[in-house]
Design a protein that fits this description.
alpha+beta; 50% helix
Length: 499
């Protein structure tokens, strides 16, 4: 290779090296990573009571060193007073910090009868209830398949939202039967008239119409109500009473009778009434106010005591003396490693539950402290409170308070409330005080409840009434609160009032 060519190659290499060096950089970052123990604690912290019980049972199943029940302290000659360190730097004291207090955990619980659950009575499902009535319809084998497909397609609220052509296709695919939509519609007509009447309706209009059609012909207002649903359903939903009267040629009394009859129909026939035992929430806390003092309990009635197995601790101790030789020594080393890992897992799990217990109680105590008037006297005494207030007072992060509050409930003298209920923004008053927006919402609901139903209050008029009571509030805020309460606008709240 010539000198010129060699020079070009070296020069190219030098340029390349120089370019590579220009792209080298050194960074110093500060990263914060959570340890597995911290992650476990965070996950346990956000679990409500029932989910925690399930989580504990899962851990008991996978970790043989974790046992349920109070720890039994044994004092026998077989239990040596001290443990020698093995030649592999196995530090038993490091493994067992804190002494015997580590092995047992029990939350403070309330043992009163009101916490005990009542066994639920087995009840028939809606689908089974409909199938039991199917025998009275005298259906053919083919129609029975159609009825089964319809019943199996009903939503939780009792509506059939599947297209009829989809039912036809399913029966064709699964049973090889050729059907038409008219065949399905004919069976659907019969299913809709089972109990509860109006089940499997495809729309609210159809649901109400079937119920009125099945009512006795002598029911006052029935014929007018059927005409309203059939001919003027949109005007009915918008409460355009003058338009309905003019179109159907009825007076106020006839219109009101028909209107009241329609309102008595069940718009969601699939929603059954819950018994007191079914419609319950397991509270995570119990707050009692007696003799001008508060007592706060963490609900742990079904949370078992946990401790590390003493038998496995002894086995781990024996495997740590370093006396085994040869293949047995290798096997024992594997066993010791397994037991130590499970021991660590049991220790961390118990410690995480203890931390959860302490954190939850600290947060609940601070909430009660900030909302003493509510827990003492009930609604009407809720004060503004945000998560940051609790976090600052306890020296915790807002995310920790959020995990404690989320999905957890407290039972007090006035009912069961989600912890989120006690957090709200404030609304200023003329006196300079601040009132919880939940209290303002309750006042708006009471104003609407007492309004003239023939001339409901607009949001602007409600704003004026609130200002008369000393609340400095804007109309758009009143509108927002009304919508959050699920209350419609004034026009849709109008009712027929006979004079």
């Amino acid at each position: 290779m010539s000198f010129a060519a060699t020079f070009q190659v070296l020069n190219a290499r030098r340029v390349t090296t120089h370019w590579t060096m220009l792209n080298l950089k050194q960074e110093l970052r500060l990263q914060q990573k959570l340890s597995p123990q911290q992650i476990q604690y965070i996950k346990l912290l956000q679990l409500p009571t029932l989910a925690l019980e399930q989580r504990i049972q899962q851990e008991l199943e996978v970790n043989p060193l974790l046992e349920e029940g109070a720890a039994i302290e044994e004092t026998s000659e077989a239990d040596p007073p001290e443990v020698q360190e093995a030649d592999d730097d196995y530090d038993w004291e490091e493994l067992l910090p804190g002494g015997d207090d580590l092995y047992g955990y029990k939350a403070r619980v309330d043992t009163s009868e009101e916490w005990r659950e009542i066994p639920l009575v087995a009840q028939e499902s809606l689908a089974d209830h409909l199938r039991a009535q199917k025998a009275f319809l005298s259906l053919t084998e083919r129609d029975t398949l159609i009825a089964e497909q319809i019943i199996g397609s009903i939503d939780e609220d009792g509506y059939l939202r599947r297209e009829l052509v989809s039912i036809v296709d399913d029966i064709m695919f699964n049973h090889g039967l050729e059907l038409s939509e008219d065949d399905v519609l004919r069976v659907l007509h019969d299913v809709q008239r089972l109990d509860p009447v109006g089940i499997a309706a495809r729309s609210l209009k159809e649901c109400l119409y079937v119920q009125l059609e099945m009512a006795s012909e002598g029911t006052p207002g029935r014929s007018v109500a059927l005409k309203i649903l059939d001919q003027m359903f949109e005007a009915f939903t918008r409460k355009r009473f003058a338009q309905i009267k003019g179109r159907l040629g009825v007076d106020d009394i006839e219109l009101k009778t028909a209107f009241d009859l329609i309102q008595r129909c069940n718009p969601k026939p699939g929603e059954g009434a819950f018994s007191a035992q079914e419609n319950y929430i397991t509270p995570d806390f119990l707050v009692r106010y007696e003799d001008d003092d508060f007592t706060i309990y963490l609900n742990g009635k079904n949370t078992p005591q946990l401790h590390v197995s003493r038998a496995y601790r002894k086995m781990l101790e024996q495997l740590s003396d370093g006396q085994q030789k040869g293949p047995a020594r290798a096997v024992d080393q594997e066993t010791r490693k397994f037991l130590r890992n499970k021991f660590d897992a049991a220790r961390w799990f118990i410690d995480s539950i203890r931390q959860r217990h302490n954190t939850l109680l600290a947060v609940m105590q601070e909430i009660v402290s900030q909302q003493e008037a509510f827990f003492a006297f009930g609604k009407g005494h809720l004060r503004p409170l945000i998560l940051k207030d609790i976090a600052d007072r306890l020296g915790m992060d807002i995310s920790t308070i959020s995990r404690v509050v989320s999905g957890k409930y407290v039972q007090c003298n006035f009912g069961v409330y989600e912890l989120k209920y006690f957090f709200s923004e404030g609304v200023a008053t003329e006196s300079g005080d601040s009132v919880s927006n939940k209290e303002v919402k309750a006042i708006i609901a009471s104003i609407i409840n007492e309004e003239d139903k023939a001339a409901p209050l607009s949001d602007q008029r409600m704003t004026a009434k609130l200002r008369e009571r000393g609340f400095q509030i804007a109309r758009r805020t009143v509108t927002k609160y009304r919508e959050q309460l699920g209350i419609p606008v004034a026009r849709l709240r109008r009712e027929i009032v006979l004079t």
